[in-house]
Amino acid sequence: MTATRIPHDHAIAVRYQQASAEVRALQRQCYMLATLRLRAAVDQAGGGAGLAVLSDIDETILDNSAVMAMAMGHEGMFQNHDTWKLWEREGDPHLIPGAADFFHLADSLGVTIFYVSDRFEENKLATIATLSRLGLPQVHADRVLLFGPPKAERRAQVERDHRVILQLGDTLHDFHGAYAGAALEDQHRLATDHADRFGQDWIVFPNAAHGTWMQAELRPWQPA
Hints:
It comes from Paracoccus gahaiensis. Keywords: Signal. This protein is of the alpha/beta class. It has helices at 5-19, 21-45, 65-72, 81-90, 99-108, 124-133, 151-159, 184-193; strands spanning 51-55, 62-63, 94-95, 112-116, 144-145, 163-169, 202-204. Strand 6, helix 8 (184-193) and strand 7 form a beta-alpha-beta unit. Helix 1 (5-19) packs across helix 2 (21-45). The chain is globular and about 60 Å long. The two termini are 25 Å apart. Residues 1-6 have low confidence and may be disordered.
């Protein structure tokens, strides 16, 4: 992919995330499915004690398309860490449709919630303040696990004391450590290997604006 194509591709991706009715429908669909899986797991366990839900934050709970749109107008800002640090501290994201109802249901069923994100640890208080302002439950320092150890290690930390019944995220490394840093071809192979988990205990949210696939070459049809 050439450098001149990246801004155009990002603009289309950000427009989809921010403006399309389809992405809102998909997000609601994800939370509807997550709700069904949550209720089934709690019923099977006879209650929520000892059970946990792990969720990514950005583009899974929070809609950050406003800062993406802002960054589009400034060359080099899209991947600039300072941009995202400022957004984490001072931004005003809103909840993705369905998030509030799902997490309040999990809380009412006695399920422990962990917010596992690669947001910057230095902005942990700001992230906690944002999640709290938006009315999400169980937003405590020991339940908000931010960037530092790999997500696989943070998941293992939770699994020492809880049975994880559901994971929510928008990139595949939100679910399993094997995806972190894997080449795109290997990600496809791993997705096939884990096919039975998608829609069961792994719920993947749409995010057209982030992923290693954005650098992949297109394979156009070649008519005879």
